[in-house]
Design a protein that fits this description.
Layout: E1 4-9, H1 24-39, E2 43-48, H2 56-61, H3 66-90, E3 95-99, E4 108-109, H4 112-120, E5 124-128, H5 138-148, E6 153-158, E7 163-164, E8 176-177, E9 179-181, H6 182-187, H7 195-203, E10 208-212, H8 218-223, E11 230-233
Parallel strand pairs: 1-2, 1-6, 2-5, 3-4, 3-5, 6-10, 9-11
Antiparallel strand pairs: 7-8, 10-11
Length: 234
């Protein structure tokens, strides 16, 4: 079993069936899954996207200044992180929010040593605010944080049950990979994460496991080693 993981969650998945914002049912289901593996003794770092509230790149396409748009996206991730921390606290789970940009008292400023101390004390650690810089996605932030906190693996929880040869929601002939290398992901131009994130993971030998987080219980299944998603490895 893994000692420490980085879980990347999609902000868009938090919308549930609403189409915008945060669906409380989906949020609470995520919290229950996270608490379940915390009780198994796994140390959990979490990075959440902000696409359910605001996406910097789409904002730039609509006329926003790109830097300001990305900063708005960073703040969206903070909102999602606070929502998840609240849901975890309601279950009695110890949790702390750290932020990549200073905004005390919303959350403490992130650094590796602080995150590791919090893990030792039994906290789930949610790292909000992306990388703290424009032009980087939360995929890249999750790769960076996984490497920084020395996670055993990065789990990318999505609404799809792994990596396919094409988008299974658009192409019914798409077939699923059980395992795939970083190089194959890049060669096939599979859009599971942005190129910067994939390259960072490849260079630092950080395995990635892509799975369906929206089916409750799946997070515990992948922790136990069930092959229900796709492993990306060297």
């Amino acid at each position: 079993m893994y000692k420490r993981i980085l879980l990347k969650l999609s902000g868009e998945s938090l919308m549930g069936e609403q189409g915008y914002g945060i669906d409380s049912n989906r949020l609470n289901a995520y919290a229950r899954q996270i608490q379940e593996i915390a009780r198994m003794g796994v140390e959990i770092g979490i990075v959440i996207g902000g696409g359910n509230i605001f996406r910097g790149l789409s904002g730039a396409q609509k006329g926003f200044d790109r830097v300001k748009g990305d900063q708005m996206g960073m703040l969206a991730t903070v909102i999602n992180s606070l929502a998840l921390s609240s849901a975890l606290e309601a279950l009695g789970q110890k949790v702390r929010v750290l932020t990549s940009i200073r905004m005390e008292p919303v959350g403490d400023y992130f650094n590796k040593a602080k995150a590791l101390r919090l893990f030792e004390k039994g906290n789930v650690v949610i790292i909000a605010g992306g990388t703290g810089n424009p032009y980087f996605t939360t995929d890249t932030a999750s790769a960076l944080r996984a490497i920084e906190i020395e996670a055993d693996i990065m789990f990318k929880g999505t609404r799809v049950d792994g990596i396919y040869t094409a988008d299974p929601e658009k192409d019914p002939t798409a077939t699923k990979f059980d395992e795939i290398t970083y190089d194959e992901v890049l060669e096939r131009n599979l859009r599971i994460m942005d190129l910067t994130a994939i390259t960072m993971c490849r260079e630092n030998k950080m395995p990635i496991y892509v799975f369906d987080m929206d089916t409750e219980g799946n997070l515990a299944r992948v922790i136990r080693g069930e092959k229900i998603g796709t492993l990306v490895k060297p």
